[in-house]
Amino acid sequence: MIRTILLFTTLTLAAPLIHAAAEAESMEGDRAELLDQRVTEAKERLNLTDEQVESVKPMIIASGESMAAVLKKYGIDVTSDKPRAKEKLGLRGARKLGRELDTVRADTLDDLKEILNSEQLAEFKAMQQERKDKMRAQILSRR
């Protein structure tokens, strides 16, 4: 009887932890898929050579992870179709978020200047601006 109670209690307490771990793993998979899509998009839109893809891929992944970390800091879930902040950011918070994201974008461009030609760099800037506009629209739509 005591074993049954202990087993039941253990399972009851462990279930939320197992669910949380599975959810976190799923989110990591979603993020990895999103980053792979960005690499594929860059390869196609920038007409990257295989050598360039190998050089650019880690930079795009690092940039995506940095962006996700900044957004997470402000309570925004990037794996969702409609990223939403847990709490409203307010004007100061939104500006601070924007500055931090702009810093990540600028750092990425600096890294890519060594690999991409001027046309590719201009197209990458356009891609960044498109993602920025999309994210801004999604965040503003929740207000």
Radius of gyration: 20 Å
Number of helices: 4
Residues in helix, %? over 70%
Compute the number of structural domains: 1
Our measurement of the CA-to-CA distance between the termini, rounded to an integer number of angstroms, reads 54 Å
- Spell the H/E element sequence: HHHH
Helices and strands, with pairings:
Layout: H1 2-46, H2 50-73, H3 90-112, H4 118-141
Short description:
This protein has helices at residues 2-46, 50-73, 90-112, 118-141.
Account of the protein in words:
The longest helix is centred in the N-terminal third of the chain and has 45 residues, at about 1-45. The protein is built from 4 helices and no strands. Residues about 5-25 have low confidence and may be disordered. It has about 140 residues and is mostly helical. Helices cover about 80% and strands about 0% of the residues. The protein is globular, with a radius of gyration of 20 Å. The chain has helices at about 1-45, 50-75, 90-110, 120-140. It has one domain (about 1-140).
